Predict the 3D structure of the following.
Amino acid sequence: MEIVSLRSGSRGNAALVFTERTKILVDCGVSGKTIENSLKSIDISPDELDGIVITHEHNDHIMGVGVMMRRYNLPVWANAETWQAMSEQIGAYSNELQRVFDTDKDFEIGDIGVNPFSIPHDAADPVGYSFVNGSEKVSVATDIGELKKDLFEAVKKSNTVLLEANHDVNMLEIGRYPMQLKRRIRGKYGHLSNDDAGKAAEFLVKLGTENILLGHLSEENNYPKLALKTVELALDQADIKVGRDLTLCVAERNTIGRCR
Ligand SMILES: [Zn+2]
Ligand SMILES: [Zn+2]
């Protein structure tokens, strides 16, 4: 099983979790065309998709959901509150394609076990996901206001984690965002900073993670080298070495991101 970030960042998010048999899109916050092209670039046809799972209803996660649903007859999984919050934005869809799950209850798509877990973020009922196939586990943990124990409980022992490193605290502080937005981003229901990602990365590696893909980088308040460096330095402090103990990469905004 592998996870590939198709697009990542405040402008739009989509990732693909896949085995030989099963292909799951995690969010679809870019256009249908962009999804089609990015899948093509990794030799996967959109016809092979088994469905879309949704983390939360913010536009950078659902923009292309309606189009992909209609174009490829794709079932979409979300919890009840997220369905309610997003249904107007995704346009008309056949009821047969609507799948509703309970947060914290596992379900299966093909040969992949899916575990949605609750995350602190300012949406109706936001979730992160862990995916399990045999002895392999990968997780998506972005759009998270603060690090809590239950997050690590949910994602522990993941081989690979797509982990949010949204902003550099100093860039956000001196940047041009209005005060209210800065407060939202920094808040308990906002986004993880590079420093937070560094702390999280340390825990994750200690809990068995081998690959960390930093994602959801802000275009305004972060850049890939800075996110990588900040997390690498935090890991260094804990005597965890990139290259020796883990692979650390960035899920870029406008291209494919994968840890290999
Ligand atoms: Zn969000
Ligand atoms: Zn987001």
In short: The chain has a mean pLDDT of 97. Residues 173 and 179 are 9 Å apart (CA to CA).
